[in-house]
Amino acid sequence: MTAPESLTARFEATRPQLSAIAYRMLGSIDDAQDAVQEAWLRLSRSAATGAEHIDNLDAWLTTVVSRICLNEVRDRRGRGREEPVAHLPDPIVDAPDESDPEHAAMLADAVGLALFVVLDTLPPAERLAFVLHDVFAVPFDQIAPIVERTPEATRKLASRARRRIERAGSTPDAGIAAQREVVDAFFAAGRSGDMDRLVAVLDPDVVLRGDFGPGTPGFRAGGAQSVAELARGYAGPDREVRAAMVNGAAGAVVFVAGRATAVMGFVVRDGRIAAIDVLADPARVARIDVGRLAR
């Protein structure tokens, strides 16, 4: 194997983790792929010019992708990018009984849509410190130069982020089967029109967020009674609900006249639904491969 071929092979071996880091930071599959591609271009240029000797390629690539993502997140905030009231990430959708290997690598572990909502509220440096350390076990002394802090200050960034995420309660119950039972009960109650059953399956402080895409107001509703009134429409007779895995948790895709119109992610906590995130942006939903979802 020649030197360029060896470098390509080593980069490809690192690509899954780089993609997972970028997805966690950016919430966009396309943007994550762009960040990883930019890292490859920088690596290629460096190798071609002999500008620097890279002792630890994995660490070098992680640093490059992290800086690209950090700059992108900062630029988004600096531009004041207009987004819906509830901006949701690109969902990763799989059939309930199977997982695409590429999707599994992108997720790294279960990272529900609700967690992204919390991550989007964090300052960029906090988000990066949390993602790199808590998810990918990158040591603080490697993260510190990226966020331009000391290792101890970087540790505090990750700790603050961790506390915010824990307070938000965006982590679901363990066990997909138990999650699925609650989600199925939610749709069954909606189809029957039984408001009491629908409210009973919801946490009293449940939150429903909807993202309809640019130019269309999103919404956020809270409380079991209010959410039950809104959510009942997703189980209407004109809608077909197909079970799915959405970002590693029990979810669903809603079809109307055979066309996918919404992706729904759920946070099931203590046996009740604590959060529902609905992506109904037609352009983004249309890009999702839903062909493997059973009817």
Describe the structure.
With about 300 residues, the protein is an alpha+beta fold. The chain folds into two domains: about 5-105 and about 115-170, PhyR, sigma-like (SL) domain (Butyryl-CoA Dehydrogenase, subunit A, domain 3, Up-down Bundle); about 175-285, Nuclear Transport Factor 2, Chain: A (Roll), CATH 3.10.450. The chain contains twelve helices and seven strands. It is globular, with a radius of gyration of 20 Å. The mean pLDDT is about 90.
| Major sheet details | 7 strands, mixed
CATH homologous superfamily (4th level) name of the largest domain: PhyR, sigma-like (SL) domain
Q: How many whole angstroms does the radius of gyration measure?
A: 20 Å
CATH architecture of the largest domain: Up-down Bundle
Strand line-up of the largest beta sheet: 1-4-5-6-7-2-3
What is the beta-strand fraction?
15-25%
End-to-end separation in angstroms reads 47 Å
Shape: globular
Instruction: Please count the helical segments.
Output: 12
- Percent of residues in helices comes to 40-55%
Task: Work out the count of structural domains.
Answer: 2
The average pLDDT value, as a whole number, equals 88
Low-confidence stretches: none
Q: Which structural class best describes the helix and strand composition?
A: alpha+beta
Tell me the number of strands.
7
CATH topology (fold) name of the largest domain: Butyryl-CoA Dehydrogenase, subunit A, domain 3
